[in-house]
Amino acid sequence: MTAPQSPATIEQPAPTVWPMVLAFGVTLIFAGVVTHPIVSVVGVILTLTAGVGWWRQVLPEPQVEHVLVPPLPEGGPAWPAARPAVRRLAPGEAGHRVRIPVEVQPISAGIKGGIVGGAAMAIVALTYGIVMQRSLWYPINLLAAVAMPAMAQAGMAELRAFDLTALVIGIVAHGVISVLAGLLYALILPMLARRHMLWGGLVAPLLWTGGLWAVLGIVNPVLNARVDWAWFIVSQIVYGLATGYVVWRAEPIATMQTWPLAARAGVEASGTTAPAEPER
């Protein structure tokens, strides 16, 4: 009689939570730089504790566990009869691999979208000034306060009054930022596979509004306290919807990846382009 064979096992490193604790501690260290020193202190404690714990997982003896290997069925391994098909991208015209995106929006679409979105956002901002502050100039002066520190310290009467310098600065700043954001829409939206209006009209405005709120609260708390963030979010969503719609409706342009190599390199030679059809 032969002794029963023990089941086969594979030696694997024992699972440990210390790497996750270490990453969390490092995150708290840097988060404390912009929040409160006590957060960095907690991060340092977690980082040191996780480092010691992770070290003891390896030294003086590595912590391992034995994983059972399931026995093979009699008659050999049971391979599947057929493998699932994998969808592959079709190659470009020159036979090289396709890269995403295949089509992009023209730069002009981003500029037009930024102008339209900026106009829509300005309507919402001016409506807020008339309805909530009884002044058409309040949102303009508040925008100009980013470049005019004295305006951020001004009283409500001065913010509601007309100021030519603030008007010029507000219009220029609003126009430049709107066009630049529209160009970003034209560059980023083609990289998203679907739901462009959701990303451009809701997700993106909420993300940059949250970032602006956090930064402005540290850089200029006085100006941050005077911004009506509920109306600000509404204006940003209106901008995102208007800009995203204009960019999405534009005629896309095929990228150069479908061109022959000579055409992409800018070589002018016979045979690099398709012959023109004769006129009838």
Helicity, as a percent range: 55-70%
Q: What kind of sheet is the major sheet?
A: 2 strands, antiparallel
Helix/strand-derived category reads mainly alpha
Shape: flat
List the helices and strands in order: EHHEEHHHHHHHHEH
Helix segment tally: 11
Mean pLDDT: 81
Radius of gyration: 30 Å
SS strand fraction: 5-15%
What would your notes on this structure say?
The structure is a single chain. With about 280 residues, this protein is mainly alpha-helical. Helix content is about 55%, strand content about 5%. It is built from eleven helices and four strands; from the N terminus they run E-H-H-E-E-H-H-H-H-H-H-H-H-E-H. It has helices at about 20-35, 35-55, 105-130, 140-145, 150, 155-160, 165-190, 195-220, 220-225, 230-250, 260-265; strands at about 10-15, 65-70, 105, 255. The protein has a two-stranded antiparallel ribbon. Strands 3-4 form a two-stranded antiparallel sheet. The radius of gyration is 30 Å and the shape is flat.
Please give the structural blueprint:
Blueprint lengths: L8 E5 L4 H17 L2 H20 L7 E5 L34 E2 L2 H26 L5 H7 L4 H4 L3 H4 L4 H25 L7 H24 L1 H6 L2 H21 L3 E2 L6 H4 L16
Antiparallel strand pairs: 1-2, 3-4
Helix pairs in contact: 1-2, 3-7, 3-10, 4-7, 8-10
Concise synopsis of the structure shown:
With 280 residues, the chain is mainly α. The chain is 56% helix and 5% strand.
Which characteristics define this entry?
about 280 residues, mainly alpha, two-stranded antiparallel sheet, 4 strands, about 55% helix, about 5% strand, flat
